[in-house]
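Q: What does the assembled structure look like for these inputs?
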Amino acid sequence: MGEPSPSGVERRHLDDAPVRVVSARVGLVTRLRNLLERRELLSGLISSDIRIKYKGSVLGLFWSMLSPALTLATYYLVFSIFLKNGIPNFVIYLFSGLVVWNLFQTAVNSATGVIVDRAGLVKKVSFPREILALANVGASVIYFAIQLVVLIGFLLLVGHQPAWGFLWLLPIAFAALYLFTAAVAIVMSAVTVYLRDMRHLMEVVLQLWFWLSPVVYSYENSLAPALQHHGLSALYFLNPVTPIILTFQRVFYVATTVRSTTTGAPLHILPQWSLTRFFELDLGLLAVTVAVFLLALILFGRLEGNFESEL
Amino acid sequence: MVDVVDVSAVSKQFRIHHERHQSLKERLLHPRSGTVEVFHALADINFRVAEGETVGILGHNGSGKSTLLKCICGVLQPTSGRIHLRGSLAALLELGAGFQPELSGRDNIYLYGAMLGFSRRMVDAIFDDIVAFSELDNFIDTQVKFYSSGMYVRLAFAVAVNVNPDILVVDEVLAVGDERFQAKCIDRIRRFQTEGRSILLVTHQADTVRAICDRAIVLDRGLMVADGPVAESLRIFREHLMGDAARHDERVTDVRATIESVSTPSGSFEVRSGAAMHFDVAVSAETAFSGNFVMEVFTRAGQLVSRSDAQGAPINLVPGVNHVSVDLKEIPLLDGVYDINVGVVDHLGSTVIAWRERAASMQVLYDGREGGVVELGPVIRQL
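A:
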């Protein structure tokens, strides 16, 4: 009595079953196809990631919002109230930059050690290993989505209109953000297998990176004049997170020039770029991040060959 | 019949770091130190497994058998060569399956199913079978970190066999679990065989191979030294074990002995059930040696009927041809052909000096009505 196979059909012959190849190098196309085929594993890993993180806590996902909320409150207190930076609606400015930064930071931070942490799995079950890092990115995207909903709710509450004309830039900026984050996460997860202290190093790097991105301060208002004077502004935009943050701020904060709440003087908060300029910048960035993502996959393929002996 | 596994020219090298620097800080502090040695775990392995075949991979520790299996499963990438796989594959490597300890058994089943490449819907369809097979009904919603090691393995095995893979890969896993669960696993493996699925089994237990496999491959230090019928491969496996022991054990380095022949006075290996039988085993030795004599009797199906030795009486081999006599007083076996393995081992039984697989085949004739292997001759009546 033969049991039906999972697909419900009786035992089939394997003459035309798909053939898989295990060999030293997995080509980029195969790699991408494998990733696509294992979507279900990715979603399973993301949901298990989220569930494990909040297992045994009644408030569940609420906790994932607590830390960003506290960060937001702290920066608001320090910069707007104590240091009196004079930026009106500073919470909105801060919030629209932080959602982007939080996605990048939590994803990279959690993905850095993921292959080392899941060594037991990596050594026993065959699946595309980069999915582990991508699952961490996926979980961060979920938190990002929740934060975005909170941000939009907040905007509705205070009656702040976003820049409707710029809204359609968000998907492009988000795609670039996702690809860049995934690329860094994938590479760091593999590098940490060989250099275990990357985890600590990454924490420091991310902190530095945060202050190099215009989240809590306005680039236009503080650094731009000095950098432009020396012709170095391009240097600041080497950071791929910056244009994405600027796009989000342009969409949600809207105003490029505001009147300071303390002195009444005009403040240049955001670059005065036109919609086309933003579009070109985001599209260009997207193209770059696609290339970076593919390079990350290739690099990962090179590094994964020796995982077994290093873990 | 098509080949479901095709291993061609597969080699695997590991880099062994003698002084390991696993952090950036150490690498910067010691830029040049740390020697690297290349270890060849597998060298040019070629074989195929046809649909429906059960193949055993035999080898002692460090022979590369687990490395080979991991390459086939895709857990490891071979340094060179290719492996083609046709159909779905489920693997049980060592203990368990890398479950998430924080998740419940239920969640782990779905997650592990997804790892093996099965959709949620497919796992839904077999979920109850998995739980029933694992006998974990009451614990399925308990976090896996609270499972005992036996429960853990049961769950892993239950998932792997119930997803009904086209190729099942098993590594030593039958050695764990209690006897009843082991029997259940063997049962399931046999059903797999009747369903025409292919199985790759790694073990160093000759009995398991004899009982389950159609064919066996022997690995010795990364080289494939045999690929053929089970009996032939087992013989080569024992020879290599013996050669290995000789290399490792100074005391027996110079001992070389061979089982020359097994004969009976009449020249016939036919015997009636219940009658006596006498064998004469000729052993030629190059040097003097004192050890033990071992005899094993198997059914044609590979079931071990008896393993016995000289029971403390030493066998003293002298250079030249020695004769050992084996007397079986009353053979209680039923109708059938029985294969006999004989060999000489050292006193501890740990080192094989000479061994001959299927040294003789004994034909037992029985005209009673009992079935099975052994005649018990029960008297059955109603009281």
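Confidence is low (pLDDT under 50) at residues 1-11 of chain A.
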